[in-house]
């Protein structure tokens, strides 16, 4: 064999090894390191924090603006603000991009009474297909039995002074013939499974409301999984807010990590 030819396999091996192993001079990119999965502790509750969520104690470039989770002042629960309204965080499902929340005001109430529609911020979230709406009829004159098919009274909401009553319905559509008897209607989102438990009377209305509902976050849609699958950690670059910042071991990247990406920050 020609001497040069005998060298080829070992040269290939050397090239392969140098591609696989970081050279001793290269450092792990600091944003990759500081965006490692983080356990946020609030009182007795723990939550795994990953993109797009931000918490105190972790750099902002690990999350996305608008997804800030805080610990309540009494250390009792984790909270998030959606359209300037406070919600308690019940669960985060990173696989399906779902966060389950409940209106903070309802948590400690024995008889929660949602007076307003839930408005979510569509620049950050979409509705979840695991949810459905219950329709609430608020401050109604007592309904005659003929109007009660599929409509149930929330007995704890009865107002003895005004004699006004609250009702809910799980079927679709608003009973227009109830409208003249009630002051307003409100849509209350809840999990399908919760709605089933409510229908089967395993839960009452207040308990169902306190189970919360889910919204799906939109940050990272279409690229964060590419970043993660390439070994990176999704993040945010305040200097280039719309770019798909992927923090890689070997440096900053857009959308996903490549071999040879180098630190430029
Ligand atoms: C909440 O927890 C923090 C950190 O453990 C502690 O410093 C603070 O005093 C606690 N606050 C209350 C109101 O318990
Ligand atoms: C529930 O009602 C809200 C407000 O009317 C609406 O935006 C949303 O799409 C409804 N959700 C479902 C699952 O029907
Ligand atoms: C009954 O309705 C009146 C008038 O809206 C209100 O001031 C009062 O707080 C209500 N009582 C209860 C128990 O909700
Ligand atoms: C229902 O609406 C009417 C008219 O807007 C108002 O006068 C009344 O106080 C309301 N009733 C209750 C119980 O809120
Ligand atoms: C809630 O939304 C429904 C339609 O989605 C609307 O008919 C109703 O008037 C709204 N209620 C309030 C209190 O704004």
How would you characterize this protein structure?
- It is a single-pass membrane protein.
- It is found in: Membrane.
- The strands form four sheets. This protein has a six-stranded antiparallel beta sheet with strand order 3-4-5-6-12-7.
- 29% of the residues are buried.
- Strand 14 and strand 15 form a beta hairpin.
- By secondary structure, it is of the alpha+beta class.
- The structure holds 2-acetamido-2-deoxy-beta-D-glucopyranose (NAG) (5 copies).
- The site of one 2-acetamido-2-deoxy-beta-D-glucopyranose has 4 residues, from loops.
Write the layout of secondary structure elements.
Layout: H1 3-20, H2 30-34, E1 38-42, E2 45-49, E3 69-71, E4 78-82, E5 85-93, E6 98-103, H3 104-107, E7 125-127, E8 131-140, E9 151-153, E10 165-169, H4 176-179, E11 182-191, H5 192-199, H6 205-211, E12 213-217, H7 224-229, E13 233-234, E14 245-248, E15 251-254
Antiparallel strand pairs: 1-2, 3-4, 4-5, 5-6, 6-12, 7-12, 8-10, 8-11, 9-10, 13-14, 14-15
The structure holds 2-acetamido-2-deoxy-beta-D-glucopyranose (NAG) (5 copies).
Residues 139, 162, 164, 183 line the site of one 2-acetamido-2-deoxy-beta-D-glucopyranose (NAG).
